[in-house]
Amino acid sequence: MSTTTTYAEVAEGIRATIAAYAQALDDGRTDDIVATFCPDGVSEITGMGTHEGHDALRKAYSGWKPRGPQRHLVLNTLVTDWNDHEAHAISDVVFVLRGDSGWAIQLVGRYEDTLHHDDGTWRIHHRVATFVT
Predict the structure, then answer these.
(1) Comparing C-alpha atoms, which of 59, 88, 56, 70 is closest to residue 25?
(2) Are the C-beta atoms of 127 and 111 separated by less than 8 Å?
């Protein structure tokens, strides 16, 4: 691999983008969610459709604002292929929701992301979210 950026720099930048996405999602900050995507970014979520571009992403995510305390716990992020401009990563995700009897797991799944390096920041170009429960 011929690159001037190290794997550690790429991996940390990608983890920061994924964390910013998850925290904005759990806080209901739609504009901050959209900012983690490239302008032509795509989000494919099992059972929730495919949304392409900032306008479509904004419309979709504004309809999914949390109604109560929730957390998307993203772990095991593995950058599988990368260069200075594009990277691929796979992350496990556990979605928990706080109800009357406490926190409970609602979904377990995986994010498969293609990210582009844009103006010093990694942004999601294409995300596929699949769930196993």
Answers:
(1) 70
(2) yes
11-40: pLDDT as tens digits: 999 999 999 999 999 999 999 999 999 999
Give the DSSP H or E segment for 82: strand 70-82
CA distance 69 to 100: 11
User: Going from the N-terminus, what domains does the chain have, and what CATH number goes with each?
Assistant: 7-131 (3.10.450.50)
pTM confidence score: 0.94
Query: Which residues have CB under 8 Å from 5's CB, separation 6+?
Result: 83, 84, 117
DSSP β-bridge partners for residue 86: 116
**Burial class for 67, CB neighbours closer than 10 Å (0-12, 13-18, 19+):** exposed
CA atoms within 13 A of residue 116's CA, in its CB half-sphere? 11
Task: Tell whether the torsion through CA atoms of 81, 38, 77 and 64 is positive or negative.
Answer: negative
